């Protein structure tokens, strides 16, 4: 019986989609097809072509790279660089698969320092688009041009470097072309790809044109300058610089303070040895570092550069090379977490905040000033404030109901003769947050510093101070507690009574001694000394509410900090409480000395600076 006849279908019926491949013998795929398959991974869209080509230019030592796009990069991507060029004899190899000048052995691969090394980008691109290479090395008397569609190298005109033109992306693979989005979307991806690379290479000049319009012009310069051009002024005004080294691992860059948080992850840039990566481990470390200061629904913004021995990181995980694998992943996680935590916690006076704090930092702290923290070579040296009655009351959150007008000299007050309104351009020893002028509606403290006016949210500022103090106290061991002369009796629900009993140990760990006084009554015998002056029943109820939601068996650090935040919020000075000038100044000095005092526990800012220039602008002075 003839099987073929049996398998034949009646005329007129269409062949169903083949599930079993029509060819059953094993055979080698043709090179073009292999490249087209590889292109699926490397050449996802115009932006990925742009990335590969710009990285090639950087590998060639370019100092300026000009990118021209037409129709979102689909019609044309043209990259011109001033790099070392390609020798004529190497030209055909540049377009061949697995041909590279960057590595030669496994050993090279393990410590690769160039962006490229797989030798497949140009071949992949050439398999799905029309590629033209024009190039000239320093030794050549003229340039050479090679087209991917065929033919040999021919003489061309070019001063130096290399021009790569990629036209009609996916012209021969219409199925892929369908996946492309609108011209504007593809352009946006291209621009983002270039911004990323440019962020990592401020030493190189870049330009970007789309449909003959200049979109971006980035001269070579300092990292700060590049950051400003790419992230904008606002980010700069709200960021800390990071520079931490441990052994041969170093983290540098910029991390925005929580006040600049985003609703998306669009401003999170991590670079590993100069290469932009999306890495779960690194973003997790960053998220953890921000967890303490940022509301859970907000996303931090940062541009961070991790450098380490290339042998300690595998970049050959994915053809696009945006994933990496660290040899010591735990160590890297810890390092990044701690480096960032430290940067975010840097107190005002020593901060590297580029505008806000910098404007307020005095050039050299006078050694005699009683409250000033100083920051030397990354080590924080906070001098203990001289305790005064007002200060201690203040630190405990206990405030007099009415302003006290005793003008006895205190550590937090302006220097003698300076009064409460030192003249503009005060001495170099003036504290960063200045001296209090007045209180506004019982909510804000107005202070004058060298730069101009400082507005402080007094509750938020105090809350932050208490939070850090509580944390430090508890980190150092069981916190100092204050036994109440008369235990505070609190009426609670049966559930809360049970919650208190179940969590007695956790509560003791943060300074509370609470026992049942009846089925619906608790007796609070001791509280953390820092909070002794506060509203104890309200504080305990808030804590129980927290513990009800989250079982205490999990009072790990993160949970503990949430409890501390609740405590700080309750312990902090309430709005509408009148403060005396010494109390206000004590708060300002305490904020300067406290880690992260420029953000409250909810990630809101605790103070803002209005410079004289900004005030002048409001009144159109000097116009
Ligand atoms: N802009 C350029 N300037 C100089 N040489 C280049 C340039 N682009 C590509 N090349 C050469 O072509 C080779 C192949 O490039 P590519 O396919 O991207 O592979 P890879 O970058 O992994 O080596 C490179 O190794 C390099 O020698
Ligand atoms: Mg390459």
Which keywords apply here?
623 residues; alpha+beta; Heat Shock Protein 90; Ribosomal Protein S5, domain 2; formyl-coa transferase, domain 3; five-stranded mixed β-sheet; 33% helix; disordered N terminus; binds magnesium ion
Provide a brief overview of the structure.
With 623 residues, this protein is an alpha+beta fold. The N and C termini lie far apart (101 Å).
Task: Annotate the secondary structure layout.
Blueprint: H1 3-7, H2 31-42, H3 46-59, E1 64-70, E2 76-81, H4 91-94, H5 106-110, H6 121-128, E3 130-136, E4 143-147, E5 154-156, E6 161-167, H7 174-177, H8 183-200, E7 205-210, E8 213-218, H9 223-231, H10 233-237, E9 239-246, E10 249-256, E11 268-272, E12 275-277, H11 280-291, E13 302-307, E14 313-314, E15 325-326, H12 329-345, H13 356-360, E16 374-376, E17 379-381, H14 389-395, E18 435-440, E19 444-448, E20 452-457, H15 458-475, E21 481-491, H16 494-502, H17 504-509, E22 513-518, E23 521-528, H18 536-549, H19 557-571, H20 581-593, E24 607-611, H21 612-618
Parallel strand pairs: 1-7, 11-13
Antiparallel strand pairs: 1-2, 2-6, 3-4, 3-6, 4-5, 7-8, 9-10, 10-13, 11-12, 14-15, 16-17, 18-19, 19-20, 20-24, 21-23, 22-23
Bound molecules: adenosine-5'-diphosphate and magnesium ion.
Give a written overview of the molecule.
The chain is an alpha+beta fold and 623 residues long. It has 4 domains: 31-218, 2-Layer Sandwich (Heat Shock Protein 90), CATH 3.30.565.10; 223-345, Ribosomal Protein S5, domain 2; 363-461 and 576-618, MutL, C-terminal domain, dimerisation subdomain (formyl-coa transferase, domain 3); 480-571, MutL, C-terminal domain, regulatory subdomain (Ribosomal Protein S8, Chain: A, domain 1), CATH 3.30.1370.100. It contains 21 helices and 24 strands. Strands 5-4-3-6-2-1-7-8 form an 8-stranded mixed beta sheet, covered by helices on one side. Strands 9-10-13-11-12 form a 5-stranded mixed beta sheet. A 4-stranded antiparallel beta sheet has the order 18-19-20-24. A hairpin with a 2-residue loop joins strand 11 (268-272) and strand 12. Helix 15 (458-475) crosses helix 19 and helix 15 (458-475) crosses helix 20. The model is unreliable at 1-13 and 349-427 (pLDDT under 50). Bound molecules: adenosine-5'-diphosphate and magnesium ion (MG). Magnesium ion is lined by residues 52, 55-56, 116, 121.
């Amino acid at each position: 019986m003839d099987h073929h006849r049996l398998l034949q279908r009646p005329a007129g019926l269409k062949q169903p989609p083949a599930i079993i491949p029509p060819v059953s013998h094993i055979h080698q795929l043709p090179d073009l097809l292999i490249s087209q398959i590889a292109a699926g991974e490397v050449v996802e869209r115009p932006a990925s072509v742009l990335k590969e080509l710009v990285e090639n230019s950087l590998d060639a030592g370019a100092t300026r790279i000009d990118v021209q796009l037409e129709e979102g990069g689909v019609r044309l991507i043209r990259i011109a660089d001033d790099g070392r060029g390609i020798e004529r004899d190497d030209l055909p190899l540049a377009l061949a698969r697995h041909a590279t000048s960057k590595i030669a052995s496994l050993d090279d691969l393990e410590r690769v320092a160039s962006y490229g090394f797989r030798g497949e980008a140009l071949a992949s691109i050439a398999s799905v688009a029309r590629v033209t290479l024009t190039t000239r090395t320093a030794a050549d008397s003229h340039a050479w041009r090679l087209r991917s569609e065929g033919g040999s190298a021919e003489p061309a005109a070019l001063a130096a470097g290399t021009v790569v033109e990629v036209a009609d992306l996916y012209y021969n693979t219409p199925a892929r072309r369908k996946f492309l989005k609108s011209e504007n979307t593809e352009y946006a991806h291209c621009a983002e790809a270039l911004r990323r690379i440019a962020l990592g290479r401020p030493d190189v000049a870049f330009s970007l044109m789309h449909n003959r319009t200049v979109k971006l012009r980035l001269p070579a310069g300092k990292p700060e300058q590049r950051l400003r051009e790419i992230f904008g002024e606002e980010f700069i005004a709200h960021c800390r610089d990071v520079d931490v080294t441990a052994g041969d691992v170093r983290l540098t860059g910029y991390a925005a303070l929580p006040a600049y948080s985003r609703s998306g992850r669009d401003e999170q840039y991590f670079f590993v040895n100069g290469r932009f990566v999306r890495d779960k481990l690194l973003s997790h470390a960053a998220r953890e570092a921000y967890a303490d200061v940022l509301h859970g629904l907000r996303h931090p913004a940062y541009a961070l550069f991790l450098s380490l021995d290339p042998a300690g990181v595998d970049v050959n995980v994915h053809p696009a090379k945006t994933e990496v694998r660290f040899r010591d992943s735990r160590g890297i996680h810890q390092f990044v977490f701690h480096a960032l935590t430290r940067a975010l916690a840097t107190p005002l006076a020593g901060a590297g905040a580029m505008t806000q704090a910098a404007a307020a930092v005095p050039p050299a702290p006078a050694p005699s000033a009683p409250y000033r923290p100083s920051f030397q070579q990354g080590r924080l040296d906070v001098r203990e404030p001289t305790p005064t009655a007002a200060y201690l009351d203040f630190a405990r959150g206990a405030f007099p109901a009415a302003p006290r007008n005793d003008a006895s000299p205190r550590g937090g007050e302006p220097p003698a003769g300076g009064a409460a309104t030192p003249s503009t351009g005060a001495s170099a020893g003036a504290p960063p947050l200045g001296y209090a002028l007045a209180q506004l509606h019982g909510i804000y403290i107005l202070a004058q510093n060298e730069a101009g006016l400082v507005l402080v949210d007094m509750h938020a500022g105090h809350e932050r101070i208490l939070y850090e103090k509580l944390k430090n106290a508890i980190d150092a061991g069981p916190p100092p507690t204050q036994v109440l002369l008369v235990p505070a009796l609190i009426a609670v629900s049966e559930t809360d009574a049970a919650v208190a009993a179940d969590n007695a140990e956790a509560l003791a760990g943060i300074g509370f001694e609470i026992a049942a006084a009846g089925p619906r009554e608790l007796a609070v015998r001791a509280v953390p000394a820092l909070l002794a002056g506060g509203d104890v029943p309200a504080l305990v109820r808030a804590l129980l509410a927290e513990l009800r939601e989250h079982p205490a068996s999990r009072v790990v650090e993160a949970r503990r900090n949430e409890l501390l935040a609740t405590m700080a919020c309750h312990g902090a000075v309430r709005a509408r409480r009148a403060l005396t000038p010494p109390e206000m100044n004590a708060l300002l000095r305490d904020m300067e000395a406290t880690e992260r005092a420029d953000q409250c526990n909810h990630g809101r800012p605790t103070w803002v600076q209005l410079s004289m220039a900004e005030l002048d602008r409001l009144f159109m002075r000097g116009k």
